[in-house]
Amino acid sequence: MIITILSAITLLVVAFCYTVTLEGLARKIEARIQRRYGPPFWQNFIDIFKGLTKHSISHGFIFDFGVLMALGGTIATVLFIPAGSIVVFPGLDNVFVVIYLLAIGLLGMAMSAVGSGNPNASIGIGRALTQMLGYELPFMIVLLGVFFHYRTSSLSELVELQISGGSYNAWIMPIGAIVAFISLMGMLGKKPFDTFIAPAEIASGPLVEYSGKYLGMLLIQHAFATFIEIGLFVNLFLGGGRTLWEFLLKFFLVYFLAVIISSIMPRFRVEQAVKFYWKWPLILSFAQVVIVVFAMGR
Amino acid sequence: MSNEQTAWEKVANMLRSRSLWMLYYCTGCGAIELPPTMTARFDMERFGIGPMATPRQADILLVTGYLSTKTLRRVVYSYEQMQAPKYIVGFGSCTLNGGIYYDSYATINRLDLYIPVDLYLAGCMPRPEAIVTGFNELMKKIDRGEATGWKNYQENHEWYRKNQIDALGEVYVHDEFHE
Amino acid sequence: MSILTLIVVSLLAAPVLYVVARLNRRIAYVAYAGLQLLSFFTVFFSRGSTLSYEVIGITERLNFNFGLSPANWFFGSIVMLVISMSAVFMLPLNKTPAKVMLLALVSAGALGAVFSMDFLTLLIFWEISTWASLILIIQDREKSVKEAIKYVSIGAVGSYAMLFSVFYMLRELDAIDFSTVAVRIEKAPVHVQLVIFISLSVMVLAKLGTFPLHTWLRGSHSCAPDEFSPILSGAMTKIGAFLLFIVAVMIPSLKIFSQLPLFNGIPLANYVLAALGGVSIVVGTVMAIRMEDAKELIAFSTVSNSGYIVLALAIGGTYATVGGLMHVLNHAIASAAMFMAVAAVAYRTGTTKIHEMGGLIVKMPVSFAAYLVAIISVAGIPPTSGFVSKWLIYQQLVQDGLPFLAFAAFFGSIGSFMYVFKPLAGIFLGQLKPEHRSLKEAPLAMVFPMAFLTLLTVFWGILPSNAIRAINTVTESVGADSVRITFSRIIALTGQWDSILVTGVFAVGFFLALLIFMKAKRARRVELMDNYTSGEFIYTAELYHFSYRMYRPFDRMFERWPSMEMWLASLSDKIRELGHLIRAVFFPKNPQIYVAYALVVLLGAFWWLR
Fold first, then answer.
1. For residues C120 and A185, what is the distance between their CA atoms, to the nearest angstrom?
2. Domain residue spans in chain B?
3. Are residues C524 and C581 in the same domain?
4. How many distinct helices (H) and strands (E) make up chain C?
5. What CATH code would you report for B7-168?
């Protein structure tokens, strides 16, 4: 019991510090790609804490409650991701539970954004939900193949099986790993799939009426959500890690790849994004699952 | 203009000065100097300054250029939608003393009478180097705790309001176009 | 009171209530609500006794058989829960004597159907219920007549198929009660098995509202009186699920059809049925996203969830069967709660179109809470009960390795986020219209059923083992396996999860977020019209409420897709033209053509008889 609480606290602190540092580092990497200097890598910490110290306005009960639900659901989901040697709930971290707990966060933010009364927020949420239908489908089908192959849908068990089996899923199911990475970029909301934030078009979409502590809390939620999504990919396809440092290294590599791909791309419209996801990624994911189910042995 | 700050305020001001989010209200021709400042050559992001889309999320309101009465109403409205602590930077000579439109009947001459300005950048228009120097000046001012324009606005609200009504007639327009 | 007495009393109550309603409507409705609550409690607490009765014989061999096996009890409790909650809900609404009599007939028919032990009883009582509901649909609005005709014609397809199968069973297997048929059908030749399975499946598809017989749901749910929609969607379609349970699980269809070609380990007949369920999930979801009326949207949500039930019970296996039965329970409660919330809103505002409302959360918070929990359950998010059934179905799909059906299941689950969010955003959130500023919350008789159903959803989400234990007795009674559970954990072959742990961790996360929220400065409350408007001054709330065609980019993607409704409409047009052609040819208006026909016929007769 004490071990669980301690590992939970450690996981939360590590997730927060590491992800926010990496986000700042990502800004620096993007800046260097654009041949400028960029902010210091601790910039995102300053942003979050400055947000928490400002005054703020509120538009009613659901505005507050939605933000709490978003941050609460995301914090809850972080505790289910194994991070190398820190596994808070071994055996009980089912991937479906993780994905649907993440949906609580999205639902909370959606309710709160629309509850602010601004149509830009509703437009942004409509786009976010449409895009979710796009990227989740290939991802879940590839996951079906992974679960069928290993006969389990628990994250910590999948990590152990990959480490003890000797080869990561990315080598066993390369097509699936690529499709999952493309879905990951949609999940993270990185270009070319960031149409629901779209600062110049719809005035930051859902974030339009958030100020002060709400904005700070949503930035924390975004950092945790990034940790969850990339952590999910690393655990499912790159074998997690035997130690915490191995996990963090693989995390950094995946994040780096996502950042440099997104820094040179423009933005898709939402129906272009959905059509893109339902064409080649979906076909490839079906191909991968058919190979796994019919051709590969159990 | 308090020189005594508690430790908590010092930390908070340090945080605020190193992460300024800007809402540039491009009222006039001065806005053309902003894209060079933000892009690769005179990179503004290395100071932590970045663009933000709405007044609710922004710290700095950058008033770039001359202000007609029609625009001033919207600027006052946007300023009041921002959340404290907030800073205003008057950009270009038109906000300082009217600039080249000093004798026009439709523009105002001194922004300081209507909303509290923390920093003026003179020039027509100021070059990106001047902008960067100006923002560094603003950051030092915030560190010292002297950028308290928002407190002034709250304390002397009637004075500002009187000036606004004198110049504009009414701030929140209420005619048949807006119903 | 025994079940038999209950059914007889319910049947007799219909004309009695009509007479009472002629004198005093309020008393009649209160009596009806009391009778339904009494029925529910009787049904729910008579679990465990397994008696069967024989009543009046229709002919020498055919009798009405009622019984109380675990399956009957399970479906009976679900149906009576929804009907009794709706009966309490409808007390403040518009009352007429005709409606209360028809409602009594509907509930009597439903009771008789779910407690039947043979196919003929099931069919007869089901038809009583269907015909009463048909007339009930056209009670309130004029344009409902066309929708009712669609309902009865598609229902007729199913009813005649089932009637055919009952007499076919009588001839081939010489029995029509469930247990005997289940035993004898195993030894019957393949074509007999297939004919019975297919004809009963047609009835299932028609009554559940599954593709390809789903087009009646949209019209009848939206045009039915507001208080009847929860019953139609939550109770009557679940009788179809009862028949599906008998056809697919009680009659061990996986074992019987194992001689047929296997598709991924599942016999072809079952796979086709499951595929139809999968298509229904996709069609229901896509159409629901495009609807602008809240009741039509929830009607298509019923299409989608019926697809889930068909898919789960057809592919068989431990987890899918238990998950499918749990989904029957979840969807009945959630769908009834959603319709009730929309009906409460319509009672106060007078409309069900989403874009005519907005911002009602400040005026009707309890309806909002009921609707929110219901949509969280439909979307399948923990900690509500909807997640449990979906998780079990996913586990079965993973275990069997069925990618195409899994695609349909995931599509339905993720697409449901989109369409359930639309009425939430359009009706309850956003800007409040000035004419709705004086609205009050729905009356207490409406609030109580919604709150009760919400509590049930959350209870079975936090402690699903309670419901699964009951479902395990149902599946064990027909010889299928049961799911392993502990007090808070559900354990499947390919994974497990702990519901109290998930709820607890969510509570901890929420508490941490609350801590950060409280430590920061207190927020200043502003009203909704004080909003980011790019600096413009706006005073009209309607201009700033975005809800019409919220998913326009998604609609554009599916505009040119084939639509079952249009195909059926064009088919009926062609039949009408055929009728016109026959009338023009054989019943012309000019006498000359009659003379010409007579001449031709006489000449032909002479030539033939020469």
1. 57
2. 7-168
3. no
4. 24, 8
5. 3.40.50.12280
The whole-number average pLDDT for the span C521-546 is: 84
| Residue for token pair 């465990």 | C48
Region C420-446: mean pLDDT is 88
Q: Are the beta carbons of B43 and A36 separated by less than 8 Å?
A: yes
User: Would you say residue B1 has pLDDT above 70?
Assistant: no
Residue A140 has pLDDT above 60, yes or no: yes
Contact C158, C166 (CB under 8 A): no
Q: Is the dihedral of CA A103, A106, A109, A111 positive or negative?
A: negative
C58 to C51, C63, C124: CA distances (angstroms): 21, 6, 12
The total number of residues written for chain C in this structure? 610
Distance CA C520, CA B100 (A): 46
Q: Smallest CA–CA separation between B135 and chain A, in Å?
A: 15
Helices and strands, counts by H and E, chain B:
7, 5
Can you read off the two tokens belonging to residue C589? 């208006």
pLDDT band at A260 (very low <50, low <70, confident <90, very high): very high
C388: pLDDT strictly greater than 50: yes
Residue C494 falls inside a structural domain: yes
**C597 and C524 together in one domain:** no
d(CA B125, CA C572): 73
Q: Which residue among C403, C502, C546 sits closest to A123, beta carbon to beta carbon?
A: C546
Residues C465 and C574 in one domain: no
Among C137, C164, C196, residue at a domain's last position: C137
Number of domains in chain A: 1
Q: Does C542 touch chain B (CB under 8 A)?
A: no
Residue B179: pLDDT band (50, 70, 90) is low
Q: How many other CB atoms sit within 10 Å of the CB of residue C553?
A: 18
Residue C53 forms part of a structural domain = yes
Name the band, by pLDDT with cuts 50, 70 and 90, for residue A261.
very high
Q: Are C415 and C308 in contact (CB under 8 A)?
A: no
Q: Decide: C273 and C375 in contact? Cβ < 8 Å.
A: no
Express each pLDDT in C6-63 by its tens digit.
888 888 888 998 998 888 888 889 999 999 998 898 888 877 666 666 666 666 667 7
CB-based burial, C475-506: b 16+ in 10 Å, e otherwise: bebbebebbebeebbbebebbbbbbebbbebb
**Contact at CB, A31 and B45, closer than 8 angstroms:** yes
Decide if C358 contacts C350 (C-beta within 8 A). no
C594 and C448 in one domain?
A: no
> For B73-116, what is each residue's pLDDT tens digit?
889 998 988 888 889 998 888 888 888 888 888 888 888 899 99
Q: Which residues of B touch A200 (CB under 8 A)?
A: 53
Q: Which of these three, C107, C137, C167, is where a domain ends?
A: C137
Question: What average pLDDT does the segment C525-537 reach?
Answer: 84
- Tell me, what's the pLDDT at C66? 81
Q: For C398, which of A144, A214, A275 is closest by C-beta distance?
A: A144
**Which ipTM value was assigned to this complex?**
0.92
C176-203 mean pLDDT: 88
| Chain A partners within 8 Å of B39 (Cβ) | 34, 36
Those residues whose C-beta lies under 8 Å from the C-beta of residue A6, and which sit 6 or more positions away, are none
Number of domains in chain C: 3
Whether B81 and B150 have beta carbons less than 8 Å apart is answered as: no
Minimal CA separation from C524 to chain A, in Å: 5
Q: Which domain holds residue C33?
A: 1-137
Q: Residue C519 falls within a domain, yes or no?
A: yes
- Which residue range forms the structural domain that includes residue A34? 2-295
Contacts B83 to A, Cβ<8 Å: 54-57, 211-212
User: Would you give the end-to-end CA distance of chain C in angstroms?
Assistant: 78
C-contacting residues of A 221-260, CB under 8 Å? Answer: none
